[in-house]
Specification:
Length: 476
């Protein structure tokens, strides 16, 4: 081992920082967070550093580096852009047996500042020994995504309850089991839901029993539209936590591939046979029975779970059966298709409101204002590919012009994405010609014409009669 890792307690200890630019300021920020007394020496200071001095958070000495300053310090950080000066500071520190970090110069440093993941009181520090700080930073990102932000609060709670835990579980083995339960169970879940009192109560209740029974729960998770990069970090952690995953047909295999290797994946897609209500009843039953067996069930849905996904009914069912749940939102198809087709869903000049509707039932969007398509609305229809004809007549009835620009986005955010630009009048024929299939989203409104210009992903197609975009471009 080239470097010896060490966590230092800098509270109320003096740290000398030489240099007062933006780089120095980032270090000053960290040092202050650790409770250090910070003295900054520099010939000139960045406004941010000056502001800290004015606020009394640091002591600023606007003077040339004076080795005598080192006498007060426990640690020195050289953050100037003058290599010669950095060397002088490092040498002066070494002469006094003080550790010195020279920012971005491993050779001159006797101490290095690691990349950190902060879940105070837990801190994870990563060092590449100065050989490749970029790799250390990338590792930090990965680790950052692995650990729940509520972990810090959990550690703090465990620290407060340490004695009671020791008394209630005197045996090491039982204590270990208890800590395992803490990391996976309802205590962390309550902290994540910003309910610290509930967390403390769950902990006390578990301690009062001889062993803690595993408590099952359901995480209702949005998998996003397909691109695995659009899964949230919380969604990723849920997939890593899952014992059982109940996955919809719309969930992309790339997202499922991110799940814990030994999680049991059950395909509950609605196409798999039987009427929808039977499938839905089966999903309800599976969620409850697996959770009752103490498992962590991830109910994984395409897009967002509470947008046209019957997620609300599933939550009501869980509530009725007393099963604990959490909801993790996902990027819904409308947002993803807008972004990946270059269609701004709102735009100062073209759309001031946005409606998400299902084409499955009669969608009551606000009627258009009258004479033209420019009613300042963007309408987005889910489940609409097979209902284009009905949709068209309804919208015409609502007062939209036949030449209102439209777009169909098929497989939004996936590698095979296709965007078809048309008008209300030409959309159905164009969709048939290009054999557009589900999943696809219908977008209606002026903003869709902007997509012909702004599209950046996948393939784009145009209906034979291309909408008149000249006027839009002139006003854009
Ligand atoms: N909960 C999902 C919607 C489920 S309804 C969400 O929030 O996105 C299913 C409909 O969503 C599909 O018929 C289609 O209209 C739309 N959809 C879902 N994923 C899509 C995608 N990747 N591209 C285009 N449309 C999509």
């Amino acid at each position: 081992m080239h470097l010896f890792p060490l966590f230092t307690d800098l509270k109320d200890r003096t740290v000398l920082v030489i240099g007062a630019g933006p780089v120095a300021d980032r270090k000053i920020h960290l040092l202050l967070a650790a409770g250090a007394r910070v003295i900054v020496g520099a010939h000139a200071a960045h406004p941010q550093v000056q502001a800290r001095a004015q606020a009394g958070d640091i002591e600023l000495r606007l003077a040339p580096f004076d080795p005598a300053w080192l006498d007060e310090a426990w640690l020195v950080i050289a953050a100037t852009n003058d290599t010669q000066l950095n060397r002088t500071i490092a040498d002066a520190a070494t002469a006094r047996r003080l550790f010195c970090n020279v920012v971005d110069d491993a050779a001159l440093s006797s101490a290095q500042v690691p990349a950190i993941v902060d879940r105070a009181p837990i801190t994870i520090a990563i060092s590449s020994g100065g050989s490749a700080p970029v790799i250390a930073r990338r590792l930090r990102e990965r680790i950052e995504s692995l650990f729940d932000p509520a972990l810090g609060a959990l550690a703090a709670l465990a620290q407060r309850k340490r004695l009671s835990i020791r008394q209630a579980r005197p045996e090491l083995r039982a204590r270990r089991d208890f800590y395992d339960w803490l990391l996976d169970g309802p205590v962390l879940s309550a902290l994540r839901r910003s309910r610290p009192d509930e967390a403390a109560a769950a902990l006390d209740q578990a301690l009062a029993q001889a062993t803690q029974a595993p408590v099952g729960k359901v995480l209702l998770v949005g998998a996003g539209p397909g691109d695995p990069g659009l899964l949230t970090l919380r969604g990723l952690r849920a997939l890593n936590e899952a014992d059982v995953i109940l996955a919809d047909r719309l969930v992309s295999p790339e997202v499922l591939a991110l799940a814990r290797r030994d999680a049991q994946v059950i395909d509950v897609g609605k196409t798999l046979g039987g009427p929808h209500e039977t499938t839905q009843a089966r999903i309800h039953a599976l969620m409850v029975s697996h959770a009752r067996q103490g498992r962590c069930v991830v109910r994984l849905k395409g897009g967002d779970p509470l947008v046209f996904g019957r997620g609300g009914e599933e939550l009501q069912h869980l509530k009725r059966h007393g099963i604990a749940y959490e909801v993790v939102p996902g990027i819904t198809a409308a947002l993803a298709c807008g972004a990946y087709a270059g269609i701004p869903l709102t735009h100062r000049d073209h759309a001031q409101s946005l409606t998400l509707a299902t084409a499955h039932r009669r969608a009551r969007t606000a009627p258009a204002s009258g004479d033209d398509a420019a009613d300042g609305q963007t309408r987005v229809y889910y489940m609409g590919v097979n209902r284009l004809s009905v949709l068209r007549s309804q919208l015409l009835e609502d007062g939209l012009a036949p030449d209102t620009p439209c777009a169909l986005v098929e497989n939004g955010s996936r590698p095979e994405q296709r965007t078809l630009f048309a008008t209300l009048d030409t959309l159905e024929a164009a969709a048939a010609e290009h054999r557009v299939q589900s999943p696809a989203l219908v977008l209606v409104g002026e903003v869709t014409a902007l997509g012909t210009e702004l599209a950046w992903f996948g393939q784009t197609k145009h209906a034979d009669a291309v909408p008149e975009t000249a006027a839009l471009q002139a006003s854009a």
